[in-house]
Amino acid sequence: HAKELGRNRFCFFTADLQAQAVERLQLEAALKRAVERDQLLLHYQPRVDARSGRMCGVEALLRWDHPEAGLMAPGQFIPVAERSSLILELGAWVIDRACQQAREWIAQGWSDAVVAVNVAARQFTSGHLDTVVQQALARHGVPARALELELTESMLMQEPDAAVDMLRRLKAIGVRLSLDDFGTGYSSLGYLQRFPIDVLKIDRSFVQTIGCGPDGAAIADAVIALAHRLKLRVVAEGVEIEAQRRYLLAQGCDELQGFLFSRPLPPQALALPAPAHALVDG
Ligand code: C2E
Ligand code: MG
Ligand code: MG
Ligand code: MG
């Protein structure tokens, strides 16, 4: 019976508004249970140093191991969670689990591991993000430098003054802050200078056009220049082909992330980088 409902959710009722509301509520209820039933998990995608190719961190990406639908990507359920305070619970779970994993990697010898976590708008504007972060770091005994929070321009621009305040509190804890999908949101360059952030992540859409036409790389070039002028690190996401890697390296992009290097993987499947001293020793 549950299986049948599951199928209905995806096919028959989608045209009907009332049924859509029911579908949303069902998905929301199932998602709530997913937290309790341990169906959520994090996959991790490497971020590599553009020059050395060495893995210098990972991005945690949420997955839902749904009993009927299988492994679901965040696009299929994060928007549902974002409609209610469920996103706060989910977001806190992600931060906690990412810290637990960071602790494990550090213990395994990856001493400078950095785990980046995506933050939802509601989570950021709730006013409690700093507390959630501090508690998770303390619970797992993880140094703040091992955690990076990925924010978006739009969530900062909702209430820029309150945002600056929260960003300062997070910086005071010592975590790294990045702007995800940079260039796709509503942003103001003036505010960019006021926000105490460390990293710009060039959106995948601007990486994918590199090599396409005379202006295909224009935005990527501009973001790299802007980041370095503001003394920020710059990461390119969605790097899929060698030509993109070579171009971004030549332009001075600091870190690269994308299917060219690895898809997001369960933590056990990740090959940890050799300790930094091993590289120096040859
Ligand atoms: P994002 O933060 O921009 O994450 C990058 C997305 O691009 C991931 O999709 C990743 O699998 C995908 N990707 C990475 N490399 C490539 C590539 O070379 N080519 C292509 N085509 N795609 C690539 P995913 O895992 O489906 O996540 C989608 C979005 O869901 C994320 O975009 C992020 O905004 C959100 N998300 C993921 N995990 C969380 C979470 O824990 N909390 C919140 N609030 N949002 C999350
Ligand atoms: Mg991200
Ligand atoms: Mg992104
Ligand atoms: Mg993106």
Automatic annotation (TrEMBL):
Portion of the parent chain present: 466 to 747 of 747
Descriptive protein name: GGDEF domain-containing protein
Record lineage: Bacteria, Pseudomonadati, Pseudomonadota, Betaproteobacteria, Burkholderiales
Domain EAL stretches: 24-278
